[in-house]
Structures are given as C-alpha cells and as structure tokens.
TrEMBL record:
Coiled coil: none annotated. This is Glycosyltransferase, MGT family. Keywords: Glycosyltransferase, Transferase. Belongs to the glycosyltransferase 28 family. InterPro entries: EryCIII-like_C, EryCIII-like_N, Glycosyltransferase_28, UDP_glucos_trans. Residues 237-379 form the Erythromycin biosynthesis protein CIII-like C-terminal domain. Residues 26-188 form the Erythromycin biosynthesis protein CIII-like N-terminal domain.
Amino acid sequence: MGRMKILFSAWPGYGHLLPMVPLVRAAQRAGHEVVITTGPDLVPHASSLGVAAAAAGPTAAESYASLPDNAMISRLPESEQSVFAAKYLFGAAGALRARDLTLFWSTWKPDLVVHDPLELGAAAVAVKAGTPHVTHGYGPMLAENDDMIAVIGSALAETFGVDPTESVLAAPYLDICPPVMRTRDGMAWRDVRPLRPSAGESADGSVAGAIAALPHPQTVYFTLGTVMNQTPQVFRAVLDAADQLDVNIVVSTGPGFDPAGIGPLSASAISYAYVPQADVLPHCSAVVSHVGAGTMLGALCYGLPQLCLPQSTDQPLNAASLVATGAALALQPDETTTATVATALHTVVHEPTFREAAARLRNAIEAMPHAERVIADLTA
C-alpha cells in the first residue's frame, strides 16, 4: 500500500504516548503522514517531536478533577481502583475525546488508527467510521486491563453510542514486553504482535558530561515518574541511601514537584525536573523507580537491574512481573526507608545474578521485531 494517513491517539500521559514514538518514527521514515492526538496538556510535547499534533479531549488534570466526590483513586480500596478509574477517568475522558475526534475526522480522515490500551475514544470513532485500528501496548498485559476495557467500552456506549470493545480485542495488539514477562496464559486480544520497546530518544548529550563529573565509579538513575511523584519522603530515603553506598545518583523529579521538598543534594547527586532516560541509562549500573512501564522497559533495554518502589495504579503488578524474572527487588511504600533502600540497592548493584537476569531480558528485547518491520506489516 502507498502513503497512508496514520493517527496515533494517546491518553495525556507520558507513559502512554512515549512508547509509541518508535512506531511514529518508523511511519515517518516509511513516508506516511502522521498525526498525534492527545490531551491539550501533552500536545506541546508531541509537537516537540516534530510531528503534527492536535488536541482532543480533556487534560489529565481536568480528568482527575472531574472524578466524583473529588475521589483520589490511590486511596480507594485496591479492589475498586481499576473499575473506578475505567469508568470515571478513562471512560469519561474517552467519550470527550471521541467527540473531538469526530470533528477532526471530518477534515482529516486517517487510514489507520493506533491507540493505547486505555484510550478507546479513538477506537470508538474508528469503529464508527470503519477505519482499521490497532492497540499499542505500553507495559505488561495485565488481567485487570480486561475488566477496564469492558468498563471503558460500556461508558463510551452510554455517552458516545459506540462500544468498541469487541472490535478492539479482535484487532492487532502490539506488545512491547518481552514474552518472558507475560504474567498470564490467556490473552484478551486475539492477535498479539511483538514490537521492540525503546528507552526513548536522546536530547543534547549534556547529561553525560554531568555524570562524568560525579565522584563515584557507579551511578544509579532514580525517578518516580510523572504522576505518582509527590512523595518527598521517598526521594529523600533514596538519596540518603545512595550517599551511604557511595554511588552517584541522577534524579528525575517529574513535573509539578518542588525540588526544594527533598532537601539538599550531596556532591554525588544531580537532580532534573525531566531528563530523557536514553541520555542517562547508558551510564548507569542500576535503576530505582516507581516501576512505570516506560522506565522499567527502558532500563531493560540496557540490561540494568532494578529496585522497584511501586506507588499505585499498575506499578505493583509491574513490579511483581519484573521481580519474578530475577532482575529486580521491590519495596512496598510501608517498607521504604533509608535503611531498607540501602540494603536492597546494594544487593541489586553488587549481586551478579540480578545483572545476569536483566541481561537475559535485554537479549529477549533485542530479538523482538523493529518498529520498521511492524509498521510495514500494518500498512501492507
């Protein structure tokens, strides 16, 4: 098939959009016309990738602010969180995104739609328009996602008039996790296709010089992501643990976080509000993180062992799938202190079995098909 119009649609979160970038780049290199749609808050970042971007649906902050009774999902009983988020966060926002995308379709009708697993507004419009669509995964396929997709679909049926669930599950699913990390036997999607994940794109390379100037031979990268990052006590515990172990630490605090809240940094620490992990990971011995899927898979692309500090959402499940491979240890929020982090981090950095397990996962990732091959198959 010749030149196609391909729409990539993502929930307005970095962890939903950034895993799509390798496929976006492959589509561009193949000569296809590409547009990204997401919430207005993420459009500037999408545009900075050199891709046409359009706003659709609410911002992430607006979606959270509209939750009933000002609920905080992380404070709900764990058994209720997924379904609540599916209906009131992803379902409600999906309907608004579908409304905006219907207008967008009238001026630019795509030949193919690629959406993340929880952004079903674009899928609903694609089903209504008869446009082929594909789900692009961003982390391990979890059993909890099956229920979420059904609830999001029902919410779209109520407010937009289309339930895309069956069509979504029958269409291709691009799985960016190495097969060994699959935590389930049966898959809701019937056409699962592997796609090699990426650690992301580099910036100007200035981080490498800053790391080279740090005093210790080993460096650890630490982040709590861009959503569950409002925990200064966790940042402080990890920073103090790194000082005890005489390792350098590069910290990415994420947006909306006041770095003054974590206190002073030692000479072996650097803090950024945001840093491309592709600029940091090649210089690291290990990663400490919230186990967001993008951070977890990015670290595995470099064969790095990890210390998991899951905070909420899908992070405990991601941690469990990674720990089971032997490439990581995990501490729960009520277990996270300077002493426990220091002990676990020392083990992850110095016990060779963790690096060996991470290397096996890196090799499994390198055996997965490149984005160029996948986009060629999708557009054939």
